Amino acid sequence: MKIGIDLLWLKPQKNGGIESYIRNLLDGLDKYSAEDDKFILFVSKDNEESLKKYFKSKKFEKILCNIESNKVGKRIIWQNAHLNSLCLKNGVETLFTPVYSKPLINDKSLTYITTIHDLQALHYPEYFSKGKYYWLRFAWKRCAKTSDKIIAISEFVKRDIIGKLNIKEDRIKVIYNPIIENGELYEFNKLSNKLNIKSRDYFYTVSQLLPHKNLKTLLYTMKEIKDNEVEMPQKLIISGVGGKDKETLINLIRELDLEENVKLTGFVSNEERDSLYSNSAAFLFPSIFEGFGMPPIEAMKLGVKVITTKCSCIPEVTEGKAYYVNDSYNAKEWVDVIKKALKDEKVIKYSFEKYSLEAVTKEYLNCFREIAGR
Question: Which residues are in the Glycosyl transferase family domain (predicted)?
Answer without folding.
Answer: 190-346
